[in-house]
Amino acid sequence: MLERRELFPNVIELNFQARRRLGCCVYLVYSSSEWLLLDIGYEDTVDDLIELIRQMDFPLANCRYLVATHADADHVQGFRRAKELLPNAQLVAHPHAQTILESNDRIAAFAEIPAQQISIDLPELKIDRAIDEGDTLKLDDLSLEVWHTPGHAVGQLSFRLGRLLFSGDNIFRDGCVGSIDAHHGSDLPAFIESLKRIQGSGVEWLLPSHGPAFRNDRKLLQSAIDRLDRYQHMADFGTCAVDWPLLDEWESELARGIHPAG
Ligand SMILES: [Zn+2]
User: How crowded is residue 120: how many other Cβ atoms within 10 Å of its Cβ?
Assistant: First the structure.
């Protein structure tokens, strides 16, 4: 049996386990007999990941859930293959992510970005169960609380396990946040609320969907909140901005007949 490199009790992260970067973070959460995976990454890494899990002595028949933190292709592309290898697992996601995945909405899932010639496979997925704020995912005596944390994506979920939060694409160790993109349904006011919730939650550790885990640091969260607050009023963020104060200034200057040269 391969030695399990636990990140925290009952939690293994498969890039950390493999000691190399395979893709997005894939968390394996386990109880005495059952286990689940949070995200899976791209399809071409699935067989290696499942083999790694088998070598750590997790019975494949005991995988209870495959969880999509949100519908982005880099997190979910491999779920069709994973379902073949883990037939007893239920694929679960937020209702909005379910709509994207079941309708194969390639734009909303970042599988198709025509202006950048990005086009990758996105297998059609059938979600077995929709989950949302207030639900719990149970593995024997272990419970993961489901949080709805929209902002990066409408269907972005996070999961609390005691002092840990699997925080999805809300925030990363360097203070970056999940990409803000109108075609993706990003929402700056909602994003700020999600970050404030995480900041005030009392959770000690954030386990993001990209990069290493890190402490839930008030200052780091505040700097992201302040940055996104500025974005709300900047033309840089196009239709994701809520207003653009320059237009109000301009309107008032036009009405007063103010000449640019003073
Ligand atoms: Zn992501």
Answer: 15
